[in-house]
Automatic annotation (TrEMBL):
InterPro entries: HATPase_C_sf, NatK-like_C. This is Sensor histidine kinase NatK-like C-terminal domain-containing protein. The lineage of its organism: Bacteria, Bacillati, Bacillota, Negativicutes, Veillonellales. It holds the Pfam family HATPase_c_5. Transmembrane segments: none annotated. Gene3D superfamilies: Histidine kinase-like ATPase, C-terminal domain. SUPFAM superfamilies: ATPase domain of HSP90 chaperone/DNA topoisomerase II/histidine kinase (SSF55874). Residues 143-238 form the Sensor histidine kinase NatK-like C-terminal domain.
Length: 248
């Protein structure tokens, strides 16, 4: 009887270990897919900008000849309209730069564009440094994934709001080797928190996002604070970025 119990316990232990390995593999794949998706969409935006720039270069010489003729003929109003048109075409070729960190910029550009396309106003002021060339791996990738998850959650929550009550704000400051990041969005619903202070939800995929944040917190010894006050849901993240780069 004791032998049967021992064998049964061993089987349960093996089963739990295999389940844990499967969950870890699933989460790693989820993080990797999120990162690949962000860079794929960012690459698409780069290609679109390159196409627009090539077209602008092709047309600009002809348009500049027209502009010169208008100026010579003193057609100032027409010349001014053409200048405005050229400025708009130049603006369409720009790649939006949200911060100096390439990986984070790629991730944020995807979700900020999604928010704006959905009619959600986004305000940002981001000082996120670029890591040294030989360290553009763990810290940058982990931070990009975490911020992608937070932006995705903010967009989803904002879409539950009335059109006039939607807004997302992002802020980051890098000082003395410490990176402080804040993201907040308007949300008038109810938010419940678990014992770790992270929000609880049954929405598919959201739980993995919070697990990604928790894993990043443990890996980088970061400070994470989530609050819901005055109709705003906020997440604050702070960690020693230089210390974590040295540990790679």
């Amino acid at each position: 009887m004791a032998l049967c119990a021992l064998i049964f316990g061993k089987c349960v232990l093996i089963g739990l270990r295999e389940l844990d390995e499967r969950l870890t593999l699933y989460k790693n794949n989820y993080d990797l897919n999120a990162q690949i998706n962000a860079f794929t969409q960012y690459a698409d935006s780069l290609r679109n900008a390159e196409k627009k720039l090539a077209l602008f270069r092709h047309d600009s010489r002809h348009q500049l000849h027209i502009l010169a003729a208008m100026i010579e003929e003193k057609k100032n109003d027409e010349a001014l309209m053409l200048i405005h048109k050229l400025n708009e075409e130049i603006d369409q070729t720009k790649i939006r730069q949200f911060c100096r960190n390439t990986m984070v910029n790629a991730a944020l550009s995807v979700y900020i564009r999604k928010a704006e396309d959905a009619g959600i106003p986004v305000q940002w002021q981001l000082d996120i440094p670029s890591s040294p060339p030989h360290t553009k791996t763990t810290v940058d990738a982990g931070l990009a994934i975490v911020l992608s998850n937070l932006m995705e959650n903010a967009v989803y929550a904002s879409l539950q709001q009335p059109a006039g009550r939607r807004k997302i704000e992002l802020a980051a400051r890098h000082t003395h080797g410490t990176l402080m990041f804040m993201i907040k969005n308007r949300y008038d619903g109810t938010v419940q928190f678990d014992v770790r202070g992270l929000p609880i939800t049954n929405r598919q995929g959201h739980g993995l996002g919070m697990k990604s944040l928790e894993q990043f917190r443990k890996k980088t010894d970061a400070t994470v604070l989530c609050t819901h006050e005055g109709g705003w849901f906020s997440v604050y993240l702070q960690f020693d970025i230089e210390k974590n780069i040295r540990l790679l």
